[in-house]
């Protein structure tokens, strides 16, 4: 009797398990997404992860997925650690993920050489290897909508606008406050070239990763140098410290401009009133006044399925997670349309990403009208070098300050191509592009 | 009953000095090696890449630190820095001389780490304990700074990263993206066996005795005729050599390209130290126990627990791992300073007298 019961329950359990696996494999698109909800960078990692997670949950709840296929969205915790990220990559591969989203420069670099072998495209949105914008060399890597080099270029344009023209830059001192890691040092060559061109003095203020929360000596130096403008290339705990120290040291906060990763609400808020006027570059709008965000609130947050607090929905980094998710969803739609398949794989996803053409109409259709500037990916341009704008913190929320600033492509693109060529030559045996070009008209 | 040396007679001195004097131990080692050889062909790619490869690569560093901390009694918090030296040295060597086989360079990169290790080991002649830990911490921070700040080290790569090029052995790719995981594993395994053999011979011989004498009381050791300068610096050199080889293995065979400045951070130094403490100071087998614990526990908890139905998110697993490692380190320091290796030894001792405990 006992044995019979046991055997029965075992069979039931086994059949449920196998049925579950079969269902998963057949009619769902698997997507494993890296996040870091722990570690020194979790302050930036949590809102981004929440935004992406909530958008896909919303699609599943509202539309039943994309094209009638559920998105099997899964998070993989990396703690911003390369070793953990490698695990997550392997996990994604084992689960047939259609896309790898590394969310750290180190993880991107570790994955790039494997992408064309494992047939998993990589999407590093506005970070990672700048040179991977060159699609002829990196057919499997996408890093739209902008590179760090474009960001530095746009920052100098903003300074020129504020000072009243590029000729006014002569003799000014412009500083780069940066994390002393490859990510932080990326803008240096562009800023050096611009300094030579416009005659301003460039000062570098590196912040060691261990010293992110202790920048008093750096800001003392900035004061001594009488620096006019500071560009902040920071991430995680470094940003709120920079804003606070700037305010404490008497540096005018509205002359401190952060890269898009230094524009979190929680980066500016801890400084209190003193943080008013802090500026950051951005490529999408903040706030919850978009149909897509309202849908997320209605279908996910109000059902208690979100990990995010309701008042955080619509904050800058949360919206960045949503922005990323909209692009990915659009690429999945493209891939479905191109191949005619409902359940796509990594190769189809690559074609979908290459066919991306985010027009204003597409943004509006995704429930995000005027949410971000339109961009278009081509076979050779996997970045698009889109426009950014400058926003300002008013003590409670981010407010748009400038019009769109278009980076000077003619300055940046040759450098990107040069770097891509250098990558291909230093990695002996780097394959020439064989993937057919996706015609995206 | 099965584990007893009754009837195994030693008829000459060589037998008596053998590392594994008991026949059962020799059989055990042979079985472990055989399993290690067939393992890559039976486990999944995921296990191979996320558990076995980092285990092998890091175990060399843990043995290295164990030589310094466990056998010589000198504490070091710079292991990750020395690993980084090995990784960068290997990268520079293989980009400057691409025609020389990468395996030779991985081994040779240990010498660069050893040289740096000796330099930072100099203060150990004057200072001990906590103060030495601080001095080696300085080494860690200096090296980490150098990895980011000296562009020559990463060939002026704008991304500041090491990109592992394709290198072959007998026409088969062993590093780079196209190399098979099984091949990488076997090469790593070869290094681990070779380095373990080297370390085990060192600590069982004259040099090892002098290290242990220094550990137990350095003034007494000096009175017995051991030159402290030589013994301590040699320990630093050998330890850093192991760390260097480990670092080269870690980047070239496991990660395959990384932002090494952030990879070889203080966090890794601490993990290696914890592995030594948890595994057992002054024990070769303990080094492997400790590494297995540090490498496998997070992965098993994060991916294994959800697979058997325990709903646990990655972030929670990450925090639980920190708590377990922290708690276990404190527990072992208080209750069993010789770590998991000591438990292993007790088990063997019990087996020897089984079934008649006394």
Give a verbal description of the structure:
The complex is a heterodimer of chains A (441) and B (358). Chain A is 45% helix and 13% strand. Chain A is of the alpha/beta class and 441 residues long. Chain A has two domains: 28-147 and 286-386 and 417-426, 3-Layer(aba) Sandwich (Rossmann fold); 148-284 and 389-408, Rossmann fold (3-Layer(aba) Sandwich), CATH 3.40.50.2300. Chain A has a seven-stranded mixed β-sheet with strand order 6-5-7-8-9-12-13, with helices on both faces. In chain A, strands 1-2 form a two-stranded parallel sheet. Chain A has a two-stranded parallel ribbon with strand order 3-4. Chain A is globular and about 60 Å long. Residues 6-25 of chain A have low confidence and may be disordered. Chain B has 358 residues and is mainly α. Chain B has one domain (48-353): ABC transporter involved in vitamin B12 uptake, BtuC (Orthogonal Bundle), CATH 1.10.3470. Chain B is 72% helix and 2% strand. Chain B has helices spanning 13-17, 23-42, 45-71, 79-96, 102-121, 129-149, 181-204, 206-216, 218-223, 228-255, 260-263, 266-279, 284-307, 314-335, 339-353; strands spanning 167-169, 172-175. In chain B, strands 1-2 form a two-stranded antiparallel sheet. In chain B, a hairpin with a 2-residue loop joins strand 1 and strand 2 (172-175). In chain B, helix 2 (23-42) packs antiparallel against helix 7 (181-204), helix 12 (266-279) packs across helix 13 and helix 13 crosses helix 15. The longest helix of chain B is centred in the last third of the chain and has 28 residues, at 228-255. Chain B is globular. Chains A and B meet through strand 2, helix 3, helix 4 and helix 15 of A and helix 3, helix 6, helix 11, helix 13 and helix 14 of B.
